[in-house]
Each structure stands twice: as structure tokens, then as C-alpha cells.
Amino acid sequence: MSLTDKAIDQLRELIRTGALPPNSKLPPEQDLAAQLGLSRNLAREAVKALAVARVLEVRRGDGTYVTSLQPSLLLEGLGGAVELLQGDSTALQDLMEVRRLLEPAATALAATRISDGQLAEIKGHLDAMREARDDIERLTAHDAAFHREVISATGNETLLTLLEGISGRTLRARIWRGLVDTQASGRTLAEHEAIFNALSIRDAALSQAAALLHVSTTEQSLREHLRSGEAPPLR
After folding, report:
1. CA distance 111 to 99
2. Of the four listed, 16, 43, 45, 203, which is most buried by Cβ atoms within 10 Å?
3. 53: nearest Cα among 85, 81, 20
4. C-alpha distances in Å from residue 37, one per residue of 3, 17, 109
5. pTM of the full predicted structure?
């Protein structure tokens, strides 16, 4: 481990233990370096690294603060990582496996917690998807919003951030383009409708089954594209 890595670990430990709680201001650089037993240069490098990771926020003219440390903030880089993995077939299949493990269970949980207002939002996105059968941009936007609203109903921000990161916008657009081109979009719309219908009657088991079918057909489509050597889709 490099000296910079050790410095990062020391500063992260102060945050983890609550010595530097969320939204608190860090001591001046010289005092922070002395507190950690580091040179000012190492303390500065550790701050820079944790700022990139959204653990710290440098406010020009004011100082450096610990962020809110909310999952949506700390995990927001996951989507960018997924975009970089588009050419790695093994990684994409691993991601689909993770989604297949998480999303059906999350949808079942959503069925037990979803409000009438959230159901209305989901129906609105479903209706918009039906109306935009050949508009890739609108399909992608409302598909993402449909799934976001479903997972939001769980009340679990970490789960929402993870699942959103696994299914990036670029990858959603790619799969919708393939579905429209092959005239298979109707099947996928029907899968979304089945998820909505199960949620609307608050049936957790049926909601889980509908979500599992949806993710499984996506996974199968991914494998077929990988075998054919085409650009791998993910939705």
C-alpha cells in the first residue's frame, strides 16, 4: 500500500468512526495533517482522492466538508463504470446476473409498500411507452422512469442506486433500438404491463414472477447477442 493509500485510509477511518460526521467541516490542511501524523502533501492527496469519490466536497473559499454520505451520492459512479464495461461480455453477463438476483426481490418488496400515487406514476410511464413505440429516446426515458418508480416504492435508496447503476441510459437505448428494429417491442411492453398489474393488486409473489420473467428475457437476449458477436444489449 502506498503512503497516499494509507493517508486515504486514515482519513476515511475518521469519517467512518464519526470523528468527522456527515456535513462536518474538516480542520485546516495543516491541522488535519498534524492530526493524522502526515505531511501536508499527503493530507492534500487524501482529500483530493476522497473528493473524487464524493466522500468529501471542496468548497472554494470556504473549506472542505464531509458530504451527506447518502448512497445515491457515494454509489453514483457505478453507472459510469457500467458504461465502460459495454465491451466486456463476461462483465455484462455478471451484471445481468446481479440484476436477476436483486430486481425481482425488490419488485416483490415494492408490492407491499407501494402507494396509490406511485402506482399512478408507473401507469403514466407505461402509457407513455405505449404511445412512443417507435421513439427510442422517449421509450428509453420512460422505461428508466418506470423501473425507477417501482424500486423507489421499496423505500430503499441503496437498492435503487445499485439497480439504476446496473442499467445505464446508454444501454437501455441500445436494447430499445434493437427491439424496435426487430418488432419485438410489443413483447417487452407486455412484460412491463404484467409488472404494473401485479403491483396494482399488491401481490408480492406475482410481482416478483413478472419482474423475473422480464429480467430473464433480457438476459437471454444479451446472451444471444454475445453469441452472434453483435453489440451486447442491456435494459
Report:
1. 18
2. 43
3. 81
4. 12, 18, 47
5. 0.77
Q: Which three cell numbers stand for residue 212?
A: 423475473
Phi-psi map region of 69: left, alpha, beta (phi>0 left; psi -120 to 50 alpha)? left
Query: 204 and 111 in contact (C-beta within 8 Å)?
Result: yes
Q: 114 or 97: which carries more pLDDT confidence?
A: 114
pLDDT for res 231: 46
Query: Which element (helix H / strand E) includes 234?
Result: none
Q: Are 189 and 129 in contact (CB under 8 A)?
A: yes
Q: Which range in 100-114, 139-153, 209-223 is most confidently predicted, on average pLDDT? A: 100-114
Q: Which of the residue ranges 73-87, 101-115, 206-220 has the most confident prediction, judged by mean pLDDT?
A: 101-115
